[in-house]
Specification:
The complex is a heterodimer.
Chain A lengths: L1 H29 L17 E2 L15 E6 L5 E9 L2 E6 L5 H6 L2 H7 L2 E6 L2 E10 L4 H12 L9 H6 L3 E7 L3
Chain B lengths: L1 H20 L3 H17 L1
Classes of the chains: A alpha+beta, B mainly alpha.
């Protein structure tokens, strides 16, 4: 019994090292201007705010990820994006897996308050996220996502989105 | 055992300082964490 207790103590002590590394990196990122990889970053501060007409969003199809900050909470993260039919879309996967629901908080927060800021190639855009759960438009969006990200582990289809595995949002323009 | 506790505390402290101040360490930690998280979530 004594040996078991000692083994557990040693294991816990050794686990503290990677846990402290992860926690420190996550906390450090919160104070940064934007995200890096997976940890949430602070508010998007730098970058000129886009004003005027909507840009031709096709240029995002050549960019792997963009930075997005919600209004509430004002943390930022790196997300995938795609343009389809002149409109801008973002999405979140793993929404029905247990780890995914713990990890992916922003889609739930965006459903409550969709006001967001995107930073793409150094320019900030004010957007409003609106979830698309059903409809024929999902077929085109799913095809555009699959074309842009062909290395997805499972093919993205309209059925997958309608089932709630993947949450898709349209990022519409909004005024300040 | 006391020595082991001290070594662990020192290792934790050094890890925190390295992540905070050594260039590239925070990115390495995040990259490694992302790899395991992606596997766990899929």
């Amino acid at each position: 019994m004594k040996h078991l207790f000692r083994a557990i103590t040693i294991l816990l002590c050794l686990t503290m090292i990677p846990v402290s590394a992860i926690a420190t990196a996550a906390i450090k990122q919160r104070f940064a201007d934007g995200p890096n990889r997976v940890f949430s970053g602070g508010p998007l501060v730098s970058g000129e705010l886009h004003r005027g007409a909507e840009p031709d969003w096709q240029f995002v199809n050549a960019i792997p990820t963009i930075e997005m900050q919600l209004e509430d909470p004002s943390t930022s993260r790196r997300i995938w994006t795609v343009e389809h039919d002149g409109r801008l879309y973002v999405w979140s996967g793993y929404m029905r897996s247990a780890v995914g629901r713990l990890w992916k908080q922003w889609p739930v927060q965006a459903e409550r308050n969709g006001n967001a800021i995107f930073r793409i190639e150094g320019t900030r855009y004010l957007r409003h996220l609106e979830r698309i759960q059903t409809g024929e438009a999902l077929e085109g969006i799913a095809a555009a996502i699959s074309a842009k990200y062909p290395s997805r582990p499972t093919p993205l289809t309209r059925a997958v989105i309608e089932r709630g595995d993947v949450w898709v949002f349209e990022a519409r323009a909004r005024q300040p | 055992m006391k020595l082991f506790y001290r070594a662990c505390a020192t290792a934790v402290l050094l890890t925190v300082l390295a992540v905070l101040f050594a260039p590239g360490v925070d990115d390495f930690v995040e990259q490694t964490f992302q790899r395991y998280l992606g596997r766990a979530a899929s």
